[in-house]
Amino acid sequence: WGGSGYPPGYAWVKLNADGTAEVVTGTQDIGTGTRTGLTQVAAEELGFPMERVVLHLGDTGTGPYAPVSSGSATQATIGPAVRAAAAEAKAQLLEAAATVLEVDPGDLGVRDGKIQVEGVPGRKIEVAEVTQKIAPHMIQGHGARGPNPEGKSVRTFGAQCVEVEVDVDTGEVTVIRVVAAHECGRIVNPTMVESQVIGAVTQGLGFGLTEERIVDARLGIVLNANLEEYKVPTVADIPAIVYAPVDLPDPEANSTGAKGIGEPPLIPTAPVVANAVFDAVGVRIRQTPLSRERVLTGLAELRDRKESV
To answer: Which domains are assigned to the chain?
Structure first.
């Protein structure tokens, strides 16, 4: 899966007089954790606690351009832009702080919202002490996500295993357990990545086992366009899903080392269930969903082939 993102993407980071930071970008959070992930990137680069970073998303009328939130690309596209903007704002902050502390900017660092003279633990000041002194002059950094690396393929990798039971009398396939290992570069937020993997695997199980669009071939009308007859998995249908994280920052992907993870775990789930069914009963099914009817048909064909030998 292409985990490189879809540049270009842009972000601004502004430092306020009270020592807080505002991040502005045109991307969106559609429930995938974009807000948390981008806040983490900005806070880490600035040296601020997360609670002192405020994110403004989705208004391209007042903020910089960013692509849509899709294709497992948001973190990989906008994360580097946010980091670049935060780095520029931090450099301006340290320049201003250097005049207050009477040191070279290169001797300063920011940790937990405090500007510290490196190697001199007792010499530090709050960020707000600097930003208040220079107000109303605003510290604002601008960041851009440049093109993907030329001549290189940036991919998200994964492998899945499942354990299934197949009832040869009814054709029912029951997934007992799924183990999903996925490498998406640097894992910015482990909880969110795990949730993305579990959600995508769940979608893959629905795609592989229960979901099928029934269309009237004559009229072209979808006959089961409702959640009663179009069967998506419920909580009771989901097996144990074991997530095996692979945290492997990719410095050639972008400046954050992170790659996309939203959709990749969906892709192998149905095929690996089909492989497990084949391993269990010797029936190769190449059409989804793996319904009882298709399993029973496959078992009958397998018996016929054995009897004809």
So the answer is: 9-145 (3.30.365.10), 157-308 (3.30.365.10)
Exactly one of 183, 263, 301, 307 is catalytic; which is it? 263
Residue linked to tokens 């690996």: 272
Give the pLDDT confidence score for residue 225 in this predicted structure.
96
Reported as a single tens digit per residue, the pLDDT across 98-140 is 999 999 999 999 999 999 999 998 899 999 999 998 877 789 9
Percent of the chain with pLDDT over 90: 82
- The verdict on whether 263 is a catalytic residue reads yes
Residue 309 predicted with pLDDT over 80: no
CA distance 293 to 72: 34
DSSP annotation string for the chain: -B-S----EEEEEEE-TTS-EEEEES---SSSSHHHHHHHHHHHHHT--GGGEEEEES-TTTS-----S-TT-HHHHHHHHHHHHHHHHHHHHHHHHHHHHTS-GGGEEEETTEEEETT-TT-EEEHHHHHHHHTTSPEEEEEEE-PPPTT---B-EEEEEEEEEE-TTT--EEEEEEEEEEE-BS-S-HHHHHHHHHHHHHHHHHHHHT----B-TTT--BTT-STTTS----GGG--EEEEEEE----TTT-TT-B---SSGGGTTHHHHHHHHHHHHHS----SSS--HHHHHHHHHHHHHHHHH-
Q: What is the mean pLDDT of the chain?
A: 94
